[in-house]
Amino acid sequence: MEIKPNKPNRLTLFIGIALVAGIIAGFILNKTYVGIENTKIANAELQAKYLHDKMKVYEAVKDSSAFNALIVIQQNLLLQKKQAEAGLLINEDESRSFATIQLFTDSLKSINTSFAALTDTSNIAYKQLLRQMELVSFQKNESLKERDKKLDWFTILADIFLRLIKMIVAPLVFTTLVVGVAKLGDISAVGRIGGKTLLWFISASLLSLLLGMILVNIFKPGIAMNLTLPDANTSTGIDKAALTIKDFFYHVFPASVIDAMAKNEILQIVVFALFFGVAAAAIGDFAKPVVHAMDVMAHIILKVTGYVMNFAPLAVFGAMAAIIAKQGIGILKTYSIFIGEFYFGLLVLWIFLILAGAVFVGKRVFTLIKRMKEPILLAFSTSSSEAAFPKTMLELERFGCKDKIVSFVLPLGYSFNLDGSMMYMTFASLFIAQSYGMDIPWATQLTMLLVLMLTSKGIAGVPRASLVVIAGTLSSFNIPEAGIALLLGIDPLLDMGRSATNVVGNSIATAVVSKWEGELGQPENN
């Protein structure tokens, strides 16, 4: 798929202006348009902290040794109950199995009663505080809903743009990948390039996860920040990621390509496109009209992309205005340590990725990053790597990467090579553990890293994907899942950096694979 020379345009400038204008508008809105709601939310948080401190007096454990012994018994009962539930389908005597499970359930209730006996939580004053806490939480949620309703006019700008991008991505991935694979000629070429691509992806993912783990252990933000911890029963609204191998493979292989396209399941679309492209290459000349039609469709979709991108400045303005109006300066003050250290970590990751790219493509890696400024800025502003996909594809081809490599590597990268998200997963998971005073051994941390390596693949299309994976990981390592509530307020700000880093990682990966294949040509002049 040939790309016409890049005409000078001012889209990057307009996006930059929209970004600054959105931030300024957000701060103004924060104090005026949604100022009352923000004040109510801030007061509710102060009241909740005050009540939480008063409740601690009643929650204090009278006998720590007895409390610790009960925790051990509770963990053993939970493990035995889980084993009994797992063996329910295996055992022939179902009634006996149900009786065993019920016995463990009753024992756990008894343990909870024993926990209560070691504290003063049955005190009337404590129950009154609990009711007050529930009321404060209700009032806060109502204020949040009212604020979100007021800001709908701004968020809708970004939502419309992202919906238009999603409208493009599935057919663009399918058509370009089919054309790219068909041009490769045979399945051996697909296997060779696929092997090189996955080698880079796995290496980059391990680097990102390991870097996040090392930095969070050096900085220890969970200890330094001394945050008020959410209640153990706090609902985060985040579903856990499935950790089973079965669910992972179900997510990879589509039951219906139509369903995969409807849901924008990039990895499933890639799998179908690979089969389709290889089959087209195997048929040879007979399939050329179909491949040519796909090529024409890809060009049409890229033309549509150009039209859609004209709305990007409006989307950036709306997204930034809404985020800043909601968060304001207060959230930056509270979480400045975590945000600063995480963005420093992303900067270090950028340096490592650029240096790794320079090993293979030399100084041209800096030209690549310069060309990617518009996709990076777009991903950062909209908090969406997907929003930058079409533009990233165009810029990589203008950089000199062959279309058949770009159309193969880049879609895979959106499922297997989300470097910014990877670093965040270890950084955030261990931050939550630190906040709860948990000292996790290095061996367990490495196990967590490997679990994240598996569970994070192929969920790019899942809303709040990083938090979903983190929730599943926390439960697997007995870290309180309620700790995710510590991240909910700042996640949109962190997602901006993650999305921009994902674009950088996938751009460098595509350039390196192109170089390995000897398919990296000269860049086009702007």
List the helices and strands and how they pair.
Blueprint: H1 11-31, H2 35-59, H3 64-86, H4 94-117, H5 124-150, H6 152-184, H7 187-219, H8 221-225, H9 245-252, H10 257-262, H11 266-283, H12 288-309, H13 312-327, H14 330-334, H15 336-361, H16 364-371, H17 373-382, H18 389-399, H19 403-416, H20 419-435, H21 442-455, H22 465-476, H23 485-488, H24 491-516
Structure description:
With 526 residues, the protein is mainly alpha-helical. Helix 7 (187-219) packs parallel to helix 20 and helix 20 (419-435) crosses helix 21 (442-455). The protein is built from 24 helices and no strands. Residues 2-8 have low confidence and may be disordered. The chain starts with 10 loop residues before the first helix and ends in a 10-residue tail after the last helix. The longest helix is centred in the first third of the chain and has 33 residues, at 152-184. The chain has a single domain, classed as Sodium:dicarboxylate symporter (Proton glutamate symport protein, Orthogonal Bundle).
Give a concise summary.
With 526 residues, this protein is mainly alpha-helical. The protein is built from 24 helices and no strands. Helix content is 78%, strand content 0%.
SSE ordering: HHHHHHHHHHHHHHHHHHHHHHHH
pLDDT averaged over residues: 84
Helix content: over 70%
Q: Taking Cα atoms only, what radius of gyration do you get, to the nearest Å?
A: 26 Å
Could you give the count of β-strands? 0
CATH class: Mainly Alpha
At the fourth CATH level, what is the homologous superfamily? Sodium:dicarboxylate symporter
Q: Structural class, from helix and strand content?
A: mainly alpha
Which geometry do the CA atoms define?
globular
Number of domains: 1
Total helical segments? 24
- Terminal CA distance reads 19 Å
**Oligomer, anyone?**
single chain
Share of residues in strands: under 5%
Largest sheet: none
CATH architecture: Orthogonal Bundle
| Residue runs with pLDDT of under 50 for 5 or more positions | 2-8
CATH topology: Proton glutamate symport protein
